[in-house]
Amino acid sequence: MAGVVILMPIVLPAIARASVVTAPVLLGTLAVSSHIPCLTRCLIIAYQGKNNFYSYNAFITAAKSFPSFGTIGDTTGRKREIVAFFAQTSHETTDGPYAWGYCFLREQGSPGDYCTPSSQWPCAPGRKYFGRRPIQISHNYKYGPCGRAIGVNLLNNPDLIATDSVISFKSIIWFWMTPQSLKPSCHDVITGRWQPSNADQAANRLRGFGVITNIINGGLECGYGNDNRVQDRIGFYKR
Question: What are the residue numbers of the active site?
Answer without folding.
Answer: 92
